[in-house]
Amino acid sequence: MIPTPDISHLKKSDYEHVYEPAEDTFLLLDALEQDMEQLREIQPLVCLEIGSGSGCVSAFITKILGPSSTLFLCTDINRFAADATRATGKQNKVPLEPVLASLASPLSSRLRRAVDILLFNPPYVPTIPDEADDAQTGAGIQGSWAGGNGGMQITDTFLQTVERLLSTKGRFYLVAVKDNDIPGIRARMLGDYGLKSEITLHRRAGREHLFVLMFHR
Amino acid sequence: MVRLITHNLLACHVKGCTSNNFPLAFKDVQIELREAEMNPDFLRGFLPKIDWNALVGAARELGDTSLPAETPEMIDEEFLQTLHHVLLEIHVEEGTMTCPNCAHVYPISNGIPNMLLAEHEIG
Ligand SMILES: C[S@@+](CC[C@H](N)C(=O)[O-])C[C@H]1O[C@@H](n2cnc3c(N)ncnc32)[C@H](O)[C@@H]1O
After folding, report:
1. Which domains does chain B have, with CATH numbers?
2. Nearest by CB: A102 against B21, B45, B116
3. CA of residue A40 to ligand 1 center, whole Å
4. Residue nearest to atom 15 of ligand 1 (CA)
5. Tens digits of pLDDT across chain B (123 residues)
6. Over 90: is that where the pLDDT of A1 sits?
7. In terms of DSSP bridges, do strands A71-76 and A96-100 run parallel, antiparallel, or are they unpaired?
8. Which residue from A68, A123, A119 is spatially nearest to A93, judged by alpha carbons?
9. Which of A13, A44, A144, B10 is most exposed, with the fewest beta carbons within 10 Å of its own?
10. Where are the domains of chain A?
């Protein structure tokens, strides 16, 4: 069992600005733990988490892979999230590298086909498009969940860059909910980019039916 | 933690700024040195991903001239030690990074590079 990262340094007041690890976060952790052996086998050099929030997921995968064998990059649009990710790295003595950025924008030209593990637990809740736009511009806590049309506005933008980022042995783990139209996402990724996928885990949590999808070449 | 390994992967992404937009130039930096566990396999694996000129230049900007101008043919223990230190142990905590092409300035604060752009700058 890989221990859940220590996030006791984050307080209630931090979670006014930063997404508090919840069922979706823990489902992603479980999916990574389930694939632990395969993840180690590909000897990843670069791991990139989009939307790292508290930093809990990246800190967890660092424990799976070891702190010195991989570069752990994290982006988020929310500056409190980037600070929290840095603090979580410190707290768990793992070298997380937070960058304030939208998706992988400033990294994508240099990381062409170079990312071995790509992670994204995105803002997936369906909202009116304006709400998602405002949340992206505001870069506050609303940006953790406001997903626009079908909850896919932010995810869809990112999906367009995944194929360019993934290394030949790369794996992309994405959290999604039923409302996001999972068969549709998988069909588009296969049809448009030739990326295959599997549903590695799913779970009902209250009203949400959560999934972890894994894409690869 | 803007370490040189991360700096070597960051390019300017302002709308229309697509050539000569890398490497970003450091200015007014405050640095901290922190020891990190050395992993020779990681360094050997990562070496082909490094833009060597960018790394040598960035290290010089931070006052470190220990790297050879070109990657040596023989990757020995001593070279890996040097590379490890430059890539992973120098942390830029405060300062700025400027695009060599469009002169956009990206601030670094509390060790975190702010690569966010205003809406009209997004491509
Ligand atoms: C559901 S939360 C997940 C946080 C954390 N990874 C976890 O699993 O607990 C979504 C995160 O994505 C971030 N985010 C939203 N839009 C983003 C964008 N365009 N680029 C990068 N991060 C974004 C939010 O700020 C938030 O931290």
Report:
1. 2-118 (2.20.25.10)
2. B116
3. 25
4. A143
5. 799 999 999 999 999 999 999 999 999 999 999 999 999 999 999 999 999 999 999 999 999 999 999 999 889 999 999 999 999 999 999 999 999 999 999 999 999 999 999 888 887
6. no
7. parallel
8. A68
9. A13
10. 23-216
A206: left (phi over 0), alpha (psi -120 to 50) or beta: left
Mutation to test the B interface, candidates A46, A77, A94, A97, most B Cβ within 10 Å:
A97
Of A129, A141, A34, give the one whose Cα is nearest residue A84.
A141
Mutate to test the pocket of ligand 1, among A133, A154, A155, A173 (most ligand atoms within 8 A of CB): A154
* A88 touches A10 (CB < 8 A): yes
Ligand 1 site, residue A153, Cβ cutoff 6 A: no
> For A22-73, how does the pLDDT look when each residue is reduced to its tens digit (9 = 90+)?
999 999 999 999 999 999 999 999 999 999 999 999 999 999 999 899 999 9
Q: Do A100 and B37 touch (CB under 8 A)?
A: no
* CATH class of the domain defined by A23-216: alpha beta
Q: Indicate whether this complex's ipTM tops 0.85.
A: yes
Nearest CA residue ID for atom 13, ligand 1: A51
